[in-house]
Specification:
Blueprint: E1 2-6, H1 10-22, E2 26-30, H2 33-42, E3 47-51, H3 59-68, E4 74-79, H4 84-92, E5 97-100, H5 105-118, E6 126-129, E7 132-135, E8 140-143, E9 146-148, H6 152-163, H7 171-178, H8 189-202, E10 208-213, E11 217-223
Parallel strand pairs: 1-2, 1-3, 3-4, 4-5
Antiparallel strand pairs: 6-7, 7-8, 8-9, 10-11
Helix pairs in contact: 2-3, 6-8
């Protein structure tokens, strides 16, 4: 899942980005309103964490423009101002929720998860595909009750495939939602990670879950040996 952080305070930006990255989110950062609008126009985000008081245009105007352009990503607005008028302006400009600084990261994360669930943006406490089980809060993954040890990026890729189980996911979709702007579209990184997941998830198991659809991408679904794609 890919998140855009719009925050001009570098310490705050790093704090949020580090916390979200540790939770397996792909994170991009913008420090100005113009940079935020450009990023949102060129990349697909599941959520945007938007500070209200950024270099112009401010967060309220950025939010209004994003909604006017049809961008429906979840928007969580941050601000140091706690007046009723500011909260109303933020919500009226198109934000889904409003969080006042200072805040605990745990609260930001909980609000983000709640917003994504509310909007149906592929955020579930537990995902099960066959005998594969992912707990999205603890990031604990088991298959047939046996715990699998995954890196942060391996988990992010497996979660994305799992919440889209039964659908063929192309490289472009995977790159957009699992990696950030630093991803090289000409690299074989996705193939490398798919190979790692196969060794972790499918090795020595009769029913395979991760499959390549030649020329199209990858699909996660239970298949017995010799089952045609």
């Amino acid at each position: 899942m890919r998140i855009l952080i719009v925050e001009d305070d570098p310490d705050m930006s790093r704090f949020i980005a580090r916390g979200l990255s540790e939770q397996s989110y792909a994170v991009d950062v913008a420090a100005t309103g113009e940079a935020a609008l450009e990023a949102a126009a060129t990349s697909s985000y599941d959520a945007i964490i938007l500070d209200a008081m950024i270099p112009p245009p401010d967060g309220f105007e950025v939010c209004r423009r994003l909604r006017a352009e049809g961008i429906d990503a979840t928007i969580l607005m941050l601000t140091a101002r706690d007046s009723l008028a500011d909260r109303v302006e933020g919500l009226d400009s198109g934000a889904d929720d409003y969080l006042v600084k200072p805040f605990e990261f745990a609260e930001l994360l909980a609000r983000l998860r709640a917003l994504l669930r509310r909007r149906g943006t592929r955020q579930y406490p537990v995902i099960e595909v066959g005998d594969l089980r992912l707990d999205t809060r603890s990031h604990r993954v088991t298959r047939a009750g046996v715990e699998l040890q995954l890196t942060t990026k391996e988990y992010a890729l497996l979660e994305y495939l799992s919440v889209n189980a039964g659908r063929v996911m192309g490289r472009e979709e995977i790159a957009e939602h699992v990696w950030n702007d630093e991803f090289d579209p000409f690299s074989n990184l996705i193939e490398v990670y798919i190979g790692r997941l196969r060794r972790l998830v499918d090795r020595e198991r009769q029913t395979k879950l991760i499959h390549t659809i030649r020329g199209s991408g990858y699909i996660l679904e239970p298949r017995e040996p010799n089952t045609a794609p």
